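TA notes, week 10

Several of you asked for a full example with nothing omitted. So below is the full record: structure tokens for the whole chain, then the designed sequence directly under it. When grading your own attempts, check the secondary structure regions first.
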């Protein structure tokens, strides 16, 4: 439209120039003809010889000449005027041509991406193209900045998705390899167990053979024992008749008695072997069963290992028994030989007793035969026992190998479990990142739609009835438009549509307002449709126009006390005593971490009652219009019939800013009937590291036409834990939001006192809020070089080598010389938003910021002298008062703790400067970062900045 108007103006000027030039030519010709006629008349009059005519002619000539001279003078004056107009037209044409050239150059620069370029205003020009162009570029640049922030979030989410996908792929590959190893191990285990089964079958056969042989040996032993007893009786008979052979017979009897003892020992060993055989059979059976179970995979081989161990022990005992039997038999052989020799020596002596001796010899022969058979059986038992031992050793080896494979299988199973857990975690991260990416994509789409609406001709916007947010809508769900036929999920599209009337009004009025770029009033939102049926979201205050309404009452109080309850009570009582009413609608509490927060809130509630909405935060310093204190409690109380308050709390902020803010705003209204202006306060955990994201998602949820302010909670620079308050709840890692619906708009201003001292520098390596490299150099070194270069041009010098880490001196330098992110000419705060690099006080290389600083961001090192900080505080308050739409009841101030570090004891002067300009009650706290999101200004999160919100009466 601006370009079309500009071109139309050029056409009009050219037409005007042609008209003026044509008029000049026509008048010139007319003057020439008049002069010619006058000269002819004069000549005719002078040339007449008649005296009467001469007298009359002269008189007529005088009249004619006088008239002609007057006409000629008028014509010449007109010519001068026309020449002046022509000169002005030419000058205007030159200015238009100059503006055209500058406009063409500007459009070329804009086409090349230089959105920060602006046209200088020509007050003498009839065209307002510069103002229109600059306003258009401000709006465009703000939108582009908004899109850049959104795109950064989208890119960040995409990177997280990619990283999660790579982790899932890697975990899947690992799981595949591990499963393959498990498969090979299981196959090997199955083969080994089959071998174990075969060996156990062999072992079982050997054991059965040993048992059979043992039974034979036992029978032979019994027969041998019977024969021995018969021989003993025969020998006893022979002894009666062979007294003379007593010595030899006695020796033979002793030898035979020794043989009997040995046989009895053999009998015991055979019985033991029989018992071992039975137990071995049972163990073999159990081993077979356990082997079968291990092969099926239902057991891990532990039972089989136990059985195999018992088999091994019994085999060892069997072998030991067999060895003992062998030794006994050898002893029997020796004793038998002794007895035989003795009998032979006495054979001649017992010839008289042949029958008895023959009987004895027959018995002894039978005993010898049985003994031989016994020896043969024992040898077979020994052989079988050797085979059993060998088989048992093989079984033990196989069992050991199987146990090893089982251990490997168990280890691999644990690896599979760990990989599965990693995969599950990675998939969870991917799911979360994908959901966040989807939200950011929808957000980006909504932002583009909003930009297009502002470019549409008036009256072309689609009017959609305003609707409340659906508190049950899932944060990650797809956004849908509101249906008037049934309850549906709240979408940002319908929110923006519901606000379109207010947006159009603001857009049309924007060119007429003379407010500075740093100040704005909240814009109206449409009222809730009377057809809406979700009563939990309908907020209608049917006040009579004739009823007396309470103008906004605003009071503050501060207190310091050894008791937390008493500190809260005294601060609230001081504020309450200054009220003009007994009612309290809203309370904001700022509290030092020296107190028990729950007790402080209990003391405040004891004064204000249970109905008032309450929010607050822990702080790094507190102040009101009355004083600046450390270790105190500051309370603001508000009662009003022209402002309505609604609050919400969101938790688990560090796990997802979007989900936490969604939770906080889920029960807040989208509009309030009779209170068309919406604004908000956002207080959140200052150590969550997502304050910049909080600013964006808060505006997304509240709507682009809802301005808001706020701050990051502090803890007196301890950097341990920060808290927010919502009613009686005290919590960390959370965000609390207070929505205000008012009959008149609130006023919001923001400013800082920093100036750039370095050339632009680019972040070349960063991880979240940790900036590792700037322009390819360690971040600290790049910052140090810029500061040293600046100080070299002044009388001041700093020995950075002597500055100690974790020192107050290093903290002061990092706070005095912060960074500014370039935002362009049209942004607030002179085109920069400040970022504090002092989260950790180290000279090792990286610089730590409280929020993320992505790679590719352009920075400048800024300088903030104390005097400039005080001036900035004063200017912020002055702009707020100048741009207020009416009388002011009071205000909230959110000021960075970095400003207190810079100013030291002079911080009181900055607060006094604010108070002298506002001249109303106000309370504030020193934050770990400030929020100020205004329509058309998308920067959102700040450091070392003053943010002021003024409430109308």
């Amino acid at each position: 439209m601006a370009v079309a108007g500009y071109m139309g103006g050029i056409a009009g000027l050219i037409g005007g120039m042609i008209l003026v030039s044509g008029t000049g030519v026509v008048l010139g010709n007319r003057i020439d003809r008049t002069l010619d006629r006058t000269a002819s008349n004069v000549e005719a009059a002078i040339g007449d010889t008649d005296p009467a005519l001469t007298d009359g002619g002269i008189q007529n000539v005088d009249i004619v000449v006088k008239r002609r001279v007057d006409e000629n003078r008028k014509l010449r004056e007109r010519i001068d005027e026309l020449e002046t107009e022509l000169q002005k037209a030419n000058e205007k044409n030159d200015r238009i041509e100059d503006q055209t050239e500058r406009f063409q150059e500007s459009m070329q620069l804009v086409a090349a991406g230089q959105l920060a370029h602006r046209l200088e205003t020509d007050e003498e020009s009839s065209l307002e193209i510069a103002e229109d162009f600059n306003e258009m570029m401000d709006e465009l640049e703000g939108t582009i900045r908004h899109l850049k922030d959104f795109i950064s979030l989208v890119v960040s989410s995409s990177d997280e998705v990619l990283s999660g996908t790579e982790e899932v792929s890697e975990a899947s590959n690992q799981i595949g390899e591990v499963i393959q190893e498990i498969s090979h191990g299981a196959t090997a285990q199955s083969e080994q167990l089959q071998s174990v089964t075969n060996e156990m079958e062999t072992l079982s056969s050997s054991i059965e053979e040993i048992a059979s042989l043992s039974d034979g040996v036992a029978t032979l032993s019994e027969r041998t024992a019977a024969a021995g007893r018969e021989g003993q009786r025969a020998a006893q008979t022979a002894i009666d008749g062979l007294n003379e052979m007593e010595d030899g017979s006695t020796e033979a009897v002793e030898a035979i008695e020794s043989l009997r003892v040995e046989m009895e020992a053999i009998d015991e060993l055979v019985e033991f072997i029989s018992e071992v055989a039975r137990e071995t059979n049972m163990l073999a059976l159990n081993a077979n069963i356990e082997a079968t179970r291990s092969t099926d995979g239902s057991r891990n081989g532990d039972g089989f290992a136990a059985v195999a161990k018992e088999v091994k022990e019994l085999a060892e005992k069997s072998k030991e028994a067999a060895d003992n039997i062998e030794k006994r038999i050898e002893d029997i052989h020796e004793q038998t030989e002794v007895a035989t020799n003795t009998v032979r020596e006495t054979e001649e002596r017992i010839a008289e007793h042949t029958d008895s001796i023959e009987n004895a010899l027959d018995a002894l022969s039978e005993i010898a035969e049985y003994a031989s058979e016994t020896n043969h059986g024992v040898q077979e038992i020994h052989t079988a026992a050797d085979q059993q031992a060998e088989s048992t050793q093989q079984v033990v080896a196989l069992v050991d190998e199987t146990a090893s494979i089982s251990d490997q299988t168990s280890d691999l199973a644990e690896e599979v479990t760990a990989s599965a857990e990693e995969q599950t975690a990675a998939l969870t991260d991917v799911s979360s990142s994908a959901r966040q990416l989807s939200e950011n994509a929808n957000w980006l789409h909504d932002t583009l739609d909003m930009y297009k609406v502002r470019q549409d001709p008036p009256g072309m916007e689609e009017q959609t009835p305003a609707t409340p947010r659906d508190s049950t809508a899932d944060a990650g769900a797809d956004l849908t438009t509101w249906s008037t036929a049934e309850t549906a999920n709240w979408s940002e599209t319908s929110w923006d549509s519901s606000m379109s009337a207010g947006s159009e009004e603001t857009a049309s009025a924007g060119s007429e307002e003379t407010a500075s770029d740093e100040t704005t009033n909240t814009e109206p939102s449409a009222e809730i449709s009377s057809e809406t049926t979700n009563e939990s979201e309908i907020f209608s205050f049917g006040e009579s126009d004739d009823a007396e309404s309470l103008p906004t009452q605003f009071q503050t109080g501060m207190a310091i006390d050894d008791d937390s309850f008493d500190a809260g009570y005294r601060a609230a009582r001081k504020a309450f005593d200054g009220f003009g009413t007994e009612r309290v609608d809203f309370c904001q509490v700022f509290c030092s971490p020296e107190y028990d927060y729950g007790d402080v809130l209990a003391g405040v509630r004891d004064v204000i009652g249970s109905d008032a909405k309450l929010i607050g935060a822990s702080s790094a310093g507190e102040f009101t219009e009355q004083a600046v204190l450390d270790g105190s409690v500051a309370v603001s109380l508000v009662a009003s019939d022209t402002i309505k308050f609604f609050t919400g709390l969101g938790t688990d902020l560090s796990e997802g800013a979007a989900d936490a803010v969604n939770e906080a705003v889920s029960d807040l209204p989208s509009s309030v009937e009779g209170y068309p202006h919406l604004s908000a306060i956002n207080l959140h955990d200052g150590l969550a590291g997502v304050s910049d994201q909080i600013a964006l998602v808060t505006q997304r949820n509240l709507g682009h036409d809802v301005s808001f302010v706020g701050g990051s909670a502090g803890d007196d620079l301890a950097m341990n834990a920060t808290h927010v308050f919502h009613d009686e709840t005290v919590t960390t890692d959370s965000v609390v939001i207070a929505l205000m619906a008012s009959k008149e708009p609130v006023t919001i201003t923001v400013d800082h006192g920093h100036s750039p001292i370095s050339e632009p520098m680019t972040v070349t390596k960063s991880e979240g809020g940790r900036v590792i490299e700037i322009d390819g150099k360690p971040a600290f070194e790049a910052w140090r070089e810029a500061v040293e270069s600046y100080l070299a041009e002044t009388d001041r010098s700093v020995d950075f080598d002597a500055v100690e880490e974790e020192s107050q001196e290093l903290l002061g330098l990092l706070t005095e010389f912060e960074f500014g992110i370039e935002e362009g000419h049209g942004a607030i705060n002179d085109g920069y938003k400040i970022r504090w690099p002092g989260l950790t006080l180290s000279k090792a290389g990286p610089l730590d910021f409280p929020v993320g600083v992505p790679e590719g961001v352009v920075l400048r090192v800024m300088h903030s002298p104390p005097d400039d900080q005080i001036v900035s505080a004063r200017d912020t308050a002055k702009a707020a008062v100048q741009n207020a739409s009416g009388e002011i009841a009071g205000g909230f101030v959110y000021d960075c703790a970095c400003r207190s570090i810079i100013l030291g004891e002079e911080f009181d002067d900055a607060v006094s400067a604010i108070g002298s300009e506002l001249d109303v009650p106000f309370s504030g706290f020193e934050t770990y970062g400030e929020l100020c999101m205004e329509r058309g200004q998308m920067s959102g999160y700040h450091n070392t900045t003053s943010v002021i919100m003024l409430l109308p009466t």
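The first strand starts at residue 519 and ends at 521. Use that as a sanity check on your answer.
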